[in-house]
Design a protein that fits this description.
single chain; mainly alpha; 170 residues; two-stranded parallel sheet
Length: 170
């Protein structure tokens, strides 16, 4: 179905494009398809007076490149980018860079059902990659970069020592 829809819009079958992943029109079509589905879901959820959120890939740039998510264009009430620094072989300061990129992208305001300016961003932190001191550093880094909050993934790894470290920075 997607092939036919793209061909109707563009005049080409994506299977006949020499390098589909690098073709701008095909990439945009895929981003728009996912974004359209999210907009439809958000409209349904919002019609019931409920908020909608999503855990997304870490930055708009990485999300577009790896999984064709244009999450900074989605009408979400809060976004949770998975800033799992260890997955990308990065250090904790990378979390701050990711928060800044996401916050800046979300600051653009609402366009055709897209995000409202100031959509809150909670930095998603991967707990198994963070000892208590590193968790405190990651939270401080995210907050200093403009995150509205943080969320941790892998709840079973949260220890009393992690909680104590959080208590020192919150």
């Amino acid at each position: 179905m997607c092939r036919e829809q793209f061909a109707a819009l563009d005049g080409r079958d994506p299977l006949e494009i020499p390098d589909p992943p690098s073709d701008e029109a095909w990439r945009r079509f895929r981003w728009d398809s996912v974004t359209g589905a999210v907009r439809d879901l958000a409209a349904g959820v919002h019609s019931h007076g409920k908020p909608i959120t999503a855990a997304v890939f870490p930055t708009p740039t990485i999300a577009r490149t790896l999984v064709r998510q244009a999450w900074d264009e989605w009408p979400l009430d809060r976004v949770f980018p998975m800033l799992y620094h260890s997955f990308y072989l990065e250090d904790i300061p990378w979390i701050g860079d990711g928060v800044r990129e996401g916050v800046a992208a979300l600051a653009g305001g609402s366009v055709d059902g897209g995000p409202r300016a100031g959509t809150p961003l909670n930095a998603g932190l991967y707990l198994p990659a963070l000892d208590p001191a590193q968790l405190a550093e990651a939270v401080t880094t995210a907050r200093d970069a403009g995150a509205a909050g943080v969320s941790t993934f892998e709840m079973h790894g949260l220890t009393d020592e992690h909680l104590a470290a959080l208590g020192e920075v919150l």
